[in-house]
Design goal:
There is one protein chain. Strands 4, 7, 8, 9, 10 and 13 form a six-stranded antiparallel beta sheet that branches. A five-stranded antiparallel beta sheet has the order 2-1-3-6-5. Strand 1 and strand 2 form a beta hairpin. Helices cover 17% and strands 27% of the residues. The protein has 289 residues and is an alpha+beta fold.
């Protein structure tokens, strides 16, 4: 009798164990697992809406900053740009900027996006999800933006440049590169003429100009960021009056002070540049030939 019970238990186990380890219909093979996402740091070239993995030393358009495998409930959904923006900051190291307390970094000007697995790597809507980072101009570039931060050499395509006041990519002709921006608030002193056009005080402009010079030294890595007068450090200030409160039933508005905005730039007074000055160090200024 004991031997019969052992045989019955063995027979049941032969049926139950495979179902526990590999659930599914008997005789029906389990679905193959979906492909994993590309590794963080992967570079991709884009042509005719097709993304191809390439070495970062080759021309490419974007980099992978974060990934989620198929069916991961924490993956960002369509329209969620905050998750990928945060992933981009962590990937580039922009939050490690020692000047962040005063200057908002303007030396990395990326666009971030959410992408999903191509059709060949999906099962219906199921598949991996990833965040990407690419230059705001969507141009191809060589190298990587990973862990460069705002003060280290990085692909010029991620710079924020201008030519004659109009935005331009740092890889093409330009006459200025934006290094950082700062904002603040100045309370009104008693007796301030609130009808007068607001302006940033000269003393504050001088102070911010000094800080702008410090920022230029830190970002270029050069003791003389003007490179013996070939470039000029410029601070562009602006100001506007802010509305603090409008009293109910009153025709007057309380103006508590002015808000100011300052842009720190390196500008070429003569000639045009064709590269970024961030991380330039002791190399020659990249003037157009």
């Amino acid at each position: 009798m004991a031997g019969l019970i052992v045989l019955l238990l063995a027979a049941l186990a032969s049926v139950a164990v495979p179902r526990i380890l590999q659930p599914g219909l008997a005789g029906v093979p389990a679905a193959a697992p979906l492909p994993p996402p590309p590794a963080v740091g992967t570079c991709m070239a884009v042509a005719e809406r097709t993304r191809t993995i390439v070495p970062c030393s080759h021309p490419h358009h974007l980099e992978i900053t974060a990934t989620w495998p198929a069916d991961d409930p924490t993956s960002p959904v369509r329209g969620d740009r905050d998750t990928c923006a945060k992933a981009g900051d962590e990937y580039t190291g922009v939050n490690a900027d020692p000047n962040a307390a005063l200057w908002s970094p303007a030396t990395i000007r990326p666009d971030t996006a959410r992408i999903r697995a191509p059709r060949g790597e999906r099962a219906g809507q199921r598949g991996w999800v990833a965040c990407t980072i690419q230059p705001w101009t969507y141009e191809h570039y060589v190298g990587s933006i990973r862990a460069t931060g705002p003060g280290r050499s990085r692909p010029a395509a991620y710079g924020s440049c201008a030519i004659w006041g109009a935005p331009a990519t740092c890889t093409k002709a330009h006459d200025a590169e934006l290094l950082g921006v700062t904002t603040g608030f100045i309370p009104d002193a008693p007796g301030t003429d609130v009808l007068r056009k607001p302006a940033v005080p000269d003393s504050l402009i001088a102070e911010l100009t000094g800080y702008c010079g410090d920022l230029a030294r830190q970002l270029t890595g050069a003791a003389d960021p003007t490179y013996a007068g070939q470039l000029e450090i410029s601070l562009l200030p602006d100001a506007w009056r802010g509305t603090n409160d409008v009293f109910e039933g009153s025709t007057s508005t309380d103006y508590p002070g002015i808000y100011y905005f300052g842009s720190c730039l390196l500008h070429a007074p003569e000639g045009l540049l064709v590269g970024s000055v961030v991380g330039l160090g002791d190399a020659p200024v990249p003037f157009a030939s």
